[in-house]
Amino acid sequence: MVTPCDAPWAFVAALQALCYRGLCPIILSRSQTWLKQTGGVGLLPAPLRQSGRGGLSVFHRITGQSSRFKSASRARPPPSGAVSIMSEWILGLFPFWLFGLSLVIACVLASEFGRGVRRRLVSPAEAGMKSDAQAYVVGAVFGLLAFLISLTFTIAINRFDERRGWVVQEANAISTTYLRASLLDEPMRSKLQSTLREYAHSRISPEGIWNDDMTARVAHSHVLQGQLWDQTRAAVYPVRQTELASYFVEAMNNTLDIGTRRELAGQAHIPARIFNSLLVYLLVASVVLGFVTGSGSAQTRVVSALMFVLFAMAIMMIVDLDSAQAGAIKVPQKALTDLAAALDKVKLQPDSSQQADSPAD
User: Fold this and answer.
1) Each residue of 304-341: pLDDT tens digit?
2) Is residue 157 located within the same domain as residue 296?
3) Full DSSP string of 140-183
4) What was the pLDDT predicted at 301?
């Protein structure tokens, strides 16, 4: 039996249960990956290893018997973190403003819940008395909340800067490889430069996010990477003992390695435990604020609501920065776009070596 003193903790437990219920699609998706790697049900949780039709049906759903889930898994590689699925699921299911509004409403309701608990536990005579300890508690709770938000925001902005930096580095690597390919003999020089030109176009994300179009581009770029390496092997094999071969192989390896690192950086997200703790802690802080303020005036409620709006805006920015497939903050693609345009102009210009040889002919 839950007593009034246990009501706040029961509310927190209910919020945690609700949060992890929302993570069920994530758990199923990761379970499918585990099953494909192990080939069995040894890694399944105990409730899913039960015998009978119920457990078997759950096993079939996890192992991908749904054709719709199979097609979705083939269309996009699974992200590396659960928070990416959560944030992109939220932003894909609801408009961005609706997510922020829902967060503010949840904080207001949690604050009203805290006020209701105070009315039940505190007598009217004690309710009017103010204590310095209450101010210390509120300051400590919201100070820790501000620290968690700043920590999470720092992680998100660092991920964003890392993705933006990899775009510039990949453009520089492709440009260096293209220039060094001009030192090779024909016909491999033209083949390599043509493939590098197409590869540069495939690495551009017009929206600056990893959507379905970008997934198709990445799949095409993987095919081009195999072609680039085959052409590199054929081009440098006759001159494999020269410094030119060493320099060109080094440049090609750097181009392919940076491309892989950029893809991994696009799938790196805030750890799910930090993000879940931030959301739960925000709601708990709202309960504490409502409990301390009690049956305050309308001005107190308005000020509390404005503070919730500010916290919701900060969390919305964190989700936007961390989201890989949705959101308004996009990774700039100017470096790759300018490189692809420059390579297209070089393609349209006549070969200078052919122009130099034509008068001699």
Assistant:
1) 899 999 999 999 899 888 876 667 788 888 999 999 99
2) yes
3) HHHHHHHHHHHHHHHHHHHHHHHHHHHHHHHHHHHHHHHHHHTT
4) 87
Rounded to 5°, the CA angle 234-236-238 comes to 85
Rg of the chain taking only CA atoms, in angstroms: 28
Answer for the pair 201, 340: CB distance below 8 angstroms, yes or no: yes
Could you give the residue ranges of the DSSP H alpha helices within the chain? 7-22, 24-38, 53-62, 67-75, 82-93, 96-121, 124-127, 132-181, 188-202, 212-236, 243-266, 272-293, 298-322, 334-348, 352-357
If you search the block for the tokens 């219920």, which residue do you land on? 21
Amino acid identity of residue 184, one-letter, is L
Domain tally, the chain: 2
The stretch 257-272 carries a mean pLDDT of 87
Please tell me whether residues 47 and 143 are part of one structural domain: no
Q: Do 57 and 193 belong to one domain?
A: no
Cα–chain center distance at 214: 14
Are 141 and 288 a contacting pair, CB within 8 Å?
yes
- In the chain, count of helices (H) and strands (E)? 15, 0
- Measured distance CA(211)–CA(257) in Å, rounded: 22
The encoded tokens of residue 159 equal: 């991920």
Q: Per the structure block, which two tokens stand in for 360? A: 């001699």
Which residue is listed with tokens 């122009």? 355
- Within this chain, do residues 90 and 47 fall inside the same structural domain, yes or no? no
Q: Are residues 259 and 129 in the same domain?
A: yes
Q: Record the tokens describing residue 337, joined without a space.
A: 């776009």
To the question of pTM greater than 0.70 for the whole model, the response is: no
167-177: pLDDT as tens digits: 999 999 999 99
Do residues 22 and 97 both lie within one domain? no
Last residue of a domain, one of 75, 99, 120: 75
Domain of 37, in residue numbers: 9-75
- Whether residue 90 sits in one domain with residue 62: no
**Does 185 lie in the same domain as 82?**
yes
Neighbour-count burial for 312-324, b at 16+ CB within 10 Å, e otherwise = bebbbbbbbbbbb
